């Protein structure tokens, strides 16, 4: 089976210009970052790359949680990417799985295992790892309570 992705890009102007990338369910402005002499008035390639890794990990995790039939009340995630000469390109995901208040210890442990398994099962993350991108996961699982907003 061949998966095909079609994108349409229009760029206006020079280095300080902006563009638009469109796909089936995506439309976003792109621009060269100010740091590199651009306008900075749009997303840039590394941000798009990290967005792909975030979407892949989140969707893989959601699928695994459903497959395990866990009582998920909420799933949120922050992610951070850094790029330095010393450490190279690094992405850290901070997922937070919120299970229903009556979740069992076994379900909590299963959710914790899913945090790790989703990293191993994410196709985009695995491609990036082959390109020497470091990806880490620092997740947590908690139970739904009055003081947790979903």
Total number of β-strand segments? 7
Mean pLDDT: 95
Shape: elongated
**What would you call the structural class?**
alpha/beta
**The biggest beta sheet, please?**
4 strands, mixed
How far apart the termini lie comes to 38 Å
Order of helices and strands: EEEHEEHHEE
Which value, in Å, is the CA radius of gyration? Answer: 18 Å
Please estimate the helix content: 25-40%
The low-confidence parts are none
The number of helical runs is 3
How much of the polypeptide forms β-strand, as a percent range? 25-35%
Structural overview:
The protein has three helices and seven strands. Strand 2 (18-22) and strand 3 (27-31) form a beta hairpin. It is elongated. 32% of the residues lie in helices and 32% in strands. Helix 1 (45-67) crosses helix 2 (105-121) and helix 1 (45-67) packs across helix 3 (123-130). The strands form two sheets. Strands 4, 5, 6 and 7 form a four-stranded mixed beta sheet that branches. The mean pLDDT is 95. The chain has 150 residues and is of the alpha/beta class.
Topology:
Elements: E1 8-12, E2 18-22, E3 27-31, H1 45-67, E4 72-84, E5 88-99, H2 105-121, H3 123-130, E6 134-137, E7 140-143
Parallel strand pairs: 5-6, 5-7
Antiparallel strand pairs: 1-2, 2-3, 4-5
What features would you highlight for this structure?
single chain, 150 residues, alpha/beta, four-stranded mixed β-sheet, three-stranded antiparallel β-sheet, 3 helices, 32% helix, 32% strand
